[in-house]
Amino acid sequence: MTHFQDLIQQRRSHRKFDGQEIDADSVKLILRAALMSPTSKGQRSWHFILVDDPKVIERIADAKDLGSQFLKEAPLAVVVLGCPTQNDCWVEDCSIAAFAMQLQAEELGLGSCWAQMRGRGLSDGTSADTVLRGLLNIPEELSCLCVLGIGHWTDERKPQAEDRLKWEQVHLGTI
């Protein structure tokens, strides 16, 4: 795609993948997009863990009760972490980086979907952060915002429909 307006219209969440490995050059471009994303005061306090082992991805998918099972089909999971003590805007910075990765994946013809981890967990009260910390050796000072599942999509998604945009929710000067 050559125009951002087309890219943003085409990007949809994909939760079904064919399992085909993602080539190293594509992975590097996806991470490059994250590392180039804007951050508060240029702090770049985020960290990214790449996971391509299906057994580990399966355990990541089970870190919370709902909304992450699609990760089990993804050939690549990117765990997005931030440092709350270093940067009070870590959630925003990690969100921007994650979405930059999703846009880059789309531009490469890959699908992606965000699995929220911050504030989520298991029915027994165990937080997703605790599960992931133990599984991936994440230091205490880092917290997980989300995990992106990335892969060659198999679920057909139509582009965003112009007629469904909520222009009435855009206000000039005041509500």
Describe the protein.
- The protein is of the alpha+beta class and 175 residues long.
- It is built from five helices and four strands; from the N terminus they run ααβαβαβαβ.
How is the secondary structure organized here?
Layout: H1 4-10, H2 24-35, E1 47-51, H3 54-61, E2 76-82, H4 90-107, E3 111-116, H5 128-136, E4 143-151
Antiparallel strand pairs: 1-2, 2-4, 3-4
Helix pairs in contact: 2-4
Average pLDDT rating: 95
Could you describe the largest sheet, including whether it forms a barrel? 4 strands, antiparallel
Q: What level of helicity do the residues show?
A: 25-40%
Order of helices and strands: HHEHEHEHE
Structural category? alpha+beta
Major sheet strand order:
1-2-4-3
Distance between the termini: 36 Å
- What's the shape? globular
Strand share of the residues? 15-25%
Number of strands: 4
Tally of contiguous helical segments: 5
List the uncertain runs.
none
- Kindly provide the radius of gyration, computed on alpha-carbon positions and rounded to a whole number of angstroms: 17 Å
Looking at this protein, list some descriptive labels.
4-stranded antiparallel beta sheet; 5 helices; globular
Short description:
With 175 residues, the protein is α+β, with helices and mostly antiparallel strands.
